[in-house]
Amino acid sequence: MPYNITVHPYTFEDRPEWDAFVERSNNGTMFHLHRFLDYHPGGKWNWHHLMFRDGNRLVGVLPGGINKEGAYWSPTGASYGSICTQDISFELTLAIVDAFIAYCKSIGVRNAYLIPAPLIYTHNYSQHHEYAMLYRKASFELHYISHAIELKHGADFEKHFDATARKSVHKILREGNITIRESDDYATFHEILLENKARHGVSPTHTLLDLLKLRELVPDKMRLNMVYLGEEPIAGSLLFLANPKVVLCFYNMLRYEYEHVRPIYLVMHETCRWAVENGYGWVDIGVSQDTTVPDPMTPSIGLINFKERFDARGILRSTYHLSIE
After folding, report:
1. Of 33, 54, 74, 102, which residue is least crowded by CB atoms under 10 Å?
2. What pTM value is reported for the model?
3. Which pLDDT belongs to residue 164?
4. Domains of the chain
């Protein structure tokens, strides 16, 4: 059937409609929500969020911005972006992509970069959007390798960890002096996070103020677990509840003087246990790149080997580049 897709920039008055659309979408994540993006201070990004309508019906939203070089990027200030839709036909998907290309051309944007969430984030598996972009001659700018655990084994997830992981978890649980529980102690968590990142010569994506702001804006999308030796905090994990299907381990960290007691094994066990109990299908452990070398696509073999101990599989996080002429 023919579609007449119109594109208009987002305004603040559109916020309730936008966020409601994302929450009931097929491929939306918390990173598409304006109540998430609001943690950025005003003026930090040159936002240019777009809404797509077929007649009066909202059929797609696109969070993003235009950088100093005049290129459109989605996401801007988030992990995943690109066009968010319901579970729609390929024909409608292609019409939306074509409308986006025409819109970019009309405002003088000649390059657009879109990073959709991996396939596991879709409620009903569909790559209509990715294929529509490739059909319109998009190229791949970059691929990262992420790793994720499919929770298809339910409460038996631990049986599919490797022997080292199972043994480590059982030892911790048996001895009982190391525990894990939900926490609101973001200050201590961020202090340990800074120590972790400093070992690798980098800083975390979020400041402590960022995390506190996010806790205020999207409390239903975050869970902080902390590991304690007695009452001393030694490790932790900040989970982003990205959508009803996927839990994203955004930060896993530990105090390295306690690395020998393997607190991250307990973190991974508890993350999977909680995710299964709460009906999630996947745990995304994040990208597995070696950030110490010039080629950003270089895999970190040691990190990948560690993630595979927990039955994780590789998933692609790809950047699509549309050259608009």
Report:
1. 102
2. 0.94
3. 96
4. 5-137 (3.40.630.30), 147-316 (3.40.630.30)
